Amino acid sequence: MGLVRVAGPDAYDLTEKGTPLRSDVPDSVRSSIRMLGEESFWYAMGMLPATVREGGSAFMKRYGPLYDHLAANPDVSRMFDDYMTARAIPSRRAWSSGTTSPPPRPWWTWRAARATSWPPSCTPTRRCVVSCSIWST
User: Fold this and answer.
1) Cα four-point dihedral sign 127, 129, 134, 136
2) Rounded distance between C-alpha atoms, residue 35 and residue 31, angstroms
3) Is the residue at 2 inside a domain?
């Protein structure tokens, strides 16, 4: 894939093509790659066809409510926060440049009400907004 090159025994460097994997570059995909490779989220993505066929949430069936899972797994929670923050940056740029309109304010209200648990740090402007519709049933 050309993302890394051998730098020595057991050592690798990112190539120019691999630059988006760095955390300190604009439009980094590092948090997305890390989050999607995390065991519980990898499982949820892998179960998407069954979820569509059967309904419900494969994630909830295996791990329980998302925010309970995050509260019990601080490393996963930090990874999730980084992922959701990185996902919001392109939308924020588009909205501020006027190339698209932000969603109307009430779009999150009914979804937020459906969440089964909330960590103390969660607010409608943080991770809860987007994830409630994806991970909760």
Assistant:
1) positive
2) 6
3) no
d(CA 55, CA 51): 5
Whether residue 7 is contained in a domain is answered as no
DSSP assignment of the chain? --SEEEEETTEEEE-STTGGGSTTSTT--HHHHHHHHSHHHHHHHHTHHHHHHH-S-HHHHHH-SHHHHHHH-HHHHHHHHHHHHHHHHHHHHHHHHTSSPPPPGGGGHHHHHH-S---TT--TTTTHHHHHHHH--
Q: What is the mean pLDDT of the chain?
A: 75
pTM, to two decimals: 0.58
Print the domain residue range for 33. Answer: 28-135
Cα–Cα distance for residue pair 98/60, rounded to 1 Å? 37
Nearest to 38 by CA among 63, 4, 5: 63
Confidence of residue 100 (pLDDT cuts 50, 70, 90): low
Q: Is 122 a member of any domain?
A: yes
Backbone angles phi, psi at 114, to 5 degrees: -85, -15
